[in-house]
Amino acid sequence: MLLYHDPRAPNPRRVRVFLAEKGVPYDTIEVLIADKAHQTAEFRKKNPIALLPVLELADGRVLRESMAICRYLEETYPEPNLMGADTWERAQIEMWNRHAELELLYPISQIFRNSHKFWEGRIKQAPEFAQIMREHLAERLDWLEGELGKRPYMAGDRFTVADITAMCALDFGKVSGVRIDPETHPNLAAWHKRVSDRPSSKA
Ligand SMILES: N[C@@H](CCC(=O)N[C@@H](CS)C(=O)NCC(=O)O)C(=O)O
Question: Which atom of ligand 1 approaches the CA of 11 most closely?
């Protein structure tokens, strides 16, 4: 298996952490967004919309979209289970993973895209939208602070793909000044330490 990724980008990291948890060996090709390597004609053969990550199987088949890749990996390498063992748990984990994608990763990505100098001259930026996303994110962090007071991990008593998405989102927020304040958000900070202490977080 071959993973096309950028070591700094949050979506490829979700797949790398997932693979590290599974203990599955794989090769990588770096496609650096800073160098516009994802926009070349060659890479567009793998992903016509020029986004990372992409997983290429040994037989040449290609998968895009982090969660589609994780679903494929979960069914190919079932242990350790990261996406749910029964109907209810699978639904819970999907619900929390969607929350992590839509309430954390989406606003954090939009803050980055619309206010960071990395994107200046590369895309049209709307700083006001970045500010709206910052305020939206602050509300969601307050909500998650309460949720993580009820259980140790996003979706329940154990580490799952929902924790991977939330961790990768929040870590990526740092480049845009998004921080977990342990004074105001102790449950979130404790959860973040719990997931960051896992060896897979270094992937
Ligand atoms: N929903 C996609 C999102 C992919 C995505 O937005 N990837 C970012 C890196 S984290 C990217 O390739 N950005 C390049 C660009 O926007 O030009 C997934 O989960 O794979």
Answer: 10
Question: 149 C-alpha to center of ligand 1: Å?
Answer: 31
Model pLDDT for residues 97-154, shown as the tens digit of each residue: 999 999 999 999 999 999 999 999 999 999 999 999 999 999 999 999 999 999 999 9
How crowded is the C-beta side of 161, counted as CA atoms within 13 Å? 33
Q: Per the CATH hierarchy, to which homologous superfamily does domain 2-76 belong?
A: Glutaredoxin (3.40.30.10)
Please give the number of the atom of ligand 1 that sits closest to the Cα of 113. Answer: 16
Cα 11 to Cα 63: distance, rounded to the nearest angstrom: 14
Q: Ligand 1 pocket: which residues have CB below 6 Å?
A: 9-11, 33, 38, 50-53, 65-66
Q: Whose Cα sits closest to atom 16 in ligand 1? A: 51
CATH code at 87-202:
1.20.1050.10
- Model confidence over 45-80: pLDDT tens digits? 999 999 999 999 999 999 999 999 999 999 999 999
Among 92, 113, 87, residue whose Cα is nearest residue 163? 92
